[in-house]
């Protein structure tokens, strides 16, 4: 490939640590240099392509550390393929995803990982990595964990929920955590007491409580908090770091705060749906609430304050999407008459960066914190920094030109995710992605898609760079 140079002029470069009016020089897919706009150093930048970012932000591409493309669940599949899902991510200013490969019970980690490589390879518009869902802990699995870490799959997800599908008991969790303590892997935990939840599901259905809102009522906040507490204690026994996914309840946040105040390497992720939506959505009439069925579930609105505070105090470090879309027609409808059969998951990979910018506008977080929780920290947490998550010499030129003043209305009519509804339908947002570069190549150019499937490459990861 011949040398290609791009210069981005006149924008406000915002990273997790700095805000500076600077010109950015990109060469051969990487950031080559930054110089304060208008200085002789910046004036000396020359390139075949110039992008005018005057009045705009120049930010790192988003890193979404939690997506489920083409995921099998409840007799169906997530509606986004790696092709459609990564294209939608690019539209939303995300330039790297870390998706979950799944080990099926009775099969090896390698088989699961190979299957996900086959789904993704040649199809992605942006770069991608994998976590590994560990569903079957045994001696062979534990040995495979070591091999996967060596080849750049450095995080392993376990489930305290979904008995009979992904569920691991405390002994299996402890063994995996002990292995991770030795090989540098990071255990990611779906922390809900699935055994107790199943009892409550059975009792609710027996009482004739079948509507989507009961999904939220049986998956109690206390059972999220209990599982979070238990996961923390198991990690403490194993001497392993712990990353709790999709934290939704204030009681669970309190458990994380306690652990972090004790100096433990315990981390928490939340998602836009928990920050912007609530049980009010689950209770929408005519089965519309099914659109908002995900696990952990949406909580009453009063939980949101604890999540925002946790993001400000760094007791929650990351906002990912848990993007796992199912169409309302034909997929969510599988649960009409029985909320437990509604496929769990919501679309969001395209909305995250915009929703979090709205949080800046609303005063919940600062500009730099926006970039920290959406770009830099997920990159560090999952061993991708400083290749991803920042704008600095040597980093991949994953760069977004963001118009902080543009206004938009979120709608399924205009989104690019392969799903027939938007969880944020009609929501007005200030701020919009204008141009997106992935490794220096434009994938969105002034609100026109210019990417292609196969541009995105698999990205091996180092171990967690966020430990105390």
Tell the overall outline.
globular
**Termini, distance in Å?**
41 Å
Q: Tell me about the largest β-sheet.
A: 9 strands, mixed
How large a portion of the residues is in β-strands, by DSSP E?
15-25%
Q: Which stretches of 5+ consecutive residues score pLDDT under 50? A: none
DSSP helix fraction: 25-40%
- What's the total count of β strands? 19
Question: Which class do the helix and strand fractions yield?
Answer: alpha/beta
Q: How many whole angstroms does the radius of gyration measure?
A: 21 Å
Mean pLDDT: 97
Count of helix runs: 14
Outline:
With 468 residues, the chain is α/β, with parallel strands linked by helices.
Give the SSE layout.
Layout: E1 5-14, E2 19-27, E3 30-36, H1 40-43, E4 49-52, E5 57-60, E6 62-67, E7 72-73, E8 76-77, H2 82-91, E9 94-102, H3 109-120, E10 127-133, H4 139-150, E11 155-159, H5 170-183, E12 186-190, H6 194-206, H7 213-218, H8 221-238, E13 242-244, H9 250-261, E14 266-270, H10 272-276, H11 279-282, H12 304-313, E15 318-319, H13 352-361, H14 367-381, E16 399-409, E17 428-438, E18 441-445, E19 448-449
Parallel strand pairs: 1-4, 1-5, 6-9, 9-10, 10-11, 11-12, 12-13, 13-14, 14-15
Antiparallel strand pairs: 1-2, 2-3, 5-16, 7-8, 16-17, 17-18, 18-19
Helix pairs in contact: 4-5, 5-8, 8-9
